[in-house]
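At this stage, I wrote out one protein's amino acid sequence and its backbone structure tokens, and that material follows here:
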Amino acid sequence: MTTTPYNIARIEQLIRQFRLEKNEFLDLVSEGLKDKLDWKKIFQPEIQINHLKRIDKIFSKGLSYYLDPAPPIQSKESSIFFRKEKFGANLNLASKKIVTQFEEMKLSLSGLAKMSDLKMDRILPIYSIDQEAMEVAKTVRETLYPKVPKDSKKFLEALIDKFAAANILVFEFVESPNLKQKVNIDGFYLQPNVIVLRRNQDYFKREIFTLAHELGHYLLNQEEVESMDYDRLATGSISKVETWCNTFAFAFLAGDKLNELDQLPEIGKFKNYSFEEIKTISDATHLSFTAILTYLVKKGKMSGAVYGKMRKEQEDTIQARKDLEKKKRELEKEMGKPSMGAQAKPIQSPLFVSAIQTAFFDGVINEYELCKTLHLKPEQLEKYLR
């Protein structure tokens, strides 16, 4: 079998960075094999190429990374996994890979900024957890809340644009429906100015809330990687930082409608549970029905039992709609109609596009690198260079 010299220190560092136990790593590298691989069998003085390919399926670094004799960089600056002990979610491997991917993107942009005439300094102040989250939301809303039509996706795009103007870099990633393992996180904040979101094609309002929540982390300058569990937010115990960020996000998106919610009677004392009032407020804002229910529980205006009943009614309605859409697609497929389900493209921050353009104009990157980074075809290049 073909073997090659390699740098085992780089593999060991990745195992530490991804926080994999030895047996967990061996299970992953042995996936699909009848017999589990042994550590000593893999890490001979020279490694088998097929073993190296299996390792790269875990870490996605490219084979050349493991062949590089240079020692790996392990520092707090290089990875959030070296900066934080715990996260707001139990991250699966797919999530760890996404976090690492965007950490590397952040570091690359930082390097480009140093080599070109690009300023990405923080504009907004750092706030304290001792400050009232709702008051901070009112202040920040004046600068960052866009006035756009009710369409949730357009609002999300406008929000990302507003953040870009304040030197907050937002990345959105879209998962392929064919992935074997999906990420189990909704978003994260990386110091000093990067927010990453998972595209939520079915629930843009949930993605919007995640963005507002991560903005809270940015304002506090407190890094986190997490999933938005509304049931835990409503009835469970969460940290002071998470509570602050949730309160901030809700007030930021609610605006003047916060007063209407606070004036609602105790939900459940009326037969219809104030469903229509809540739906009207949800429709008038970019807050989901579930986010409003969560707020009302935390305010003591709704019991856990009523919350559970209303959540179930809403989820049943959503599931019925999804089942209907699925049947429609299956019927169209049987009738030979072409599928319209092209994979969605992530929203690009103007700040990111501007950074790459500046690097190109300053001669730091070439046309090929510009097209690759912005996912452009050569014929699309001209409009990005105006």
